[in-house]
């Protein structure tokens, strides 16, 4: 039986060229960015990938069960495998935050200038895969108790909740997944949601129903968190309506999953169109309104946000960039 290959087979120097000129620069080092970089290089494009969050937000997922080829795999493991696959190709990599993107219509070889704090690079095309950042509750006490009982990542901090009563704020599939994970550690998990019903995928909904029957999870619906209190660490959440006779809910930890904000500011600055949610608008070819500028993944206006969809968009973007360059 053929041995599975998990590490890059080739040892390339991935250091970017100072003030280098590239065919494509990929902004974003999540699973979508790495998958895009792999395909761009397979198409023969001189490729640079830049980002300050290696692996992206999928690294916060404790279990991914809807990515083809893996029945069940952790988010960090999946992200690392895609990254290693990309590193099997001669791409250039820079772990840094992008601070500015500029458009120069007069020079096709230096159509875009991408700048970090200390370096600048030039490219004929851009593939924008910055993804999103977590939304915060914006309530009193949130900032004070971050990393002191308040978290945005159950995979990261779940092990510290052993034997405690905890709560998850949110009603999405992601919120339900994290609540399910927390049942492995905490003695009780509340889901606090501002609407009537949570809306997980069907498979996760069945798991949730079972945990509710077993008393591991309880849903507090039509309720918001108004304030977070504690001493050195978080001890309670103040609700906007009583639950079992009290507005104060005693907790050992609170996990927030109320949505994500698209990181589209850099794209908007050069005139890329976004929708009312600040998501980059693309067509079926991953093209934006600016020629040579493509987008893929959670940053786009694709309604169904999934890693497999984002990677597919990135592959499409790489191919369209290849065609765009060949026509120049």
CATH topology of the largest domain: FAD/NAD(P)-binding domain
**What's the mean pLDDT score?**
94
- CATH class of the largest domain, anyone? Alpha Beta
Residue share in helices?
Answer: 10-25%
Low-confidence stretches: none
Please give the domain count.
2
Order of helices and strands: EHEHEEEEEEHEHEHEEEEEEHEH
CATH architectural arrangement of the largest domain: 3-Layer(bba) Sandwich
Task: Note the gap between the termini.
Answer: 46 Å
Instruction: Give me the Rg, rounded.
Output: 22 Å
Number of strands: 17
In summary, what is this structure?
The protein has 328 residues and is of the alpha/beta class.
Overview of the molecule:
This protein is 23% helix and 25% strand. It is of the alpha/beta class and 328 residues long. It has two domains: 21-133 and 260-327, FAD/NAD(P)-binding domain; 136-256, FAD/NAD(P)-binding domain (3-Layer(bba) Sandwich). Strands 1, 2, 3, 4, 5, 6 and 17 form a seven-stranded mixed β-sheet that branches. Helix 5 links the parallel strand 10 (188-192) and strand 11 (217-220).
Name some characteristics of this structure.
single chain, 328 residues, alpha/beta, FAD/NAD(P)-binding domain, 2 domains, seven-stranded mixed beta sheet, five-stranded parallel beta sheet, 17 strands, 25% strand
Can you lay out the helices and strands and say which pair or pack?
Blueprint: E1 21-27, H1 31-42, E2 47-51, H2 75-87, E3 92-95, E4 100-103, E5 112-115, E6 120-128, E7 132-134, E8 150-151, H3 154-157, E9 165-169, H4 173-182, E10 188-192, H5 202-213, E11 217-220, E12 225-230, E13 234-243, E14 246-250, E15 253-256, E16 260-262, H6 265-269, E17 293-295, H7 307-327
Parallel strand pairs: 1-2, 1-6, 2-3, 6-17, 8-15, 9-10, 9-15, 10-11
Antiparallel strand pairs: 4-5, 5-6, 7-16, 12-13, 13-14
Helix pairs in contact: 1-2, 1-7, 4-5
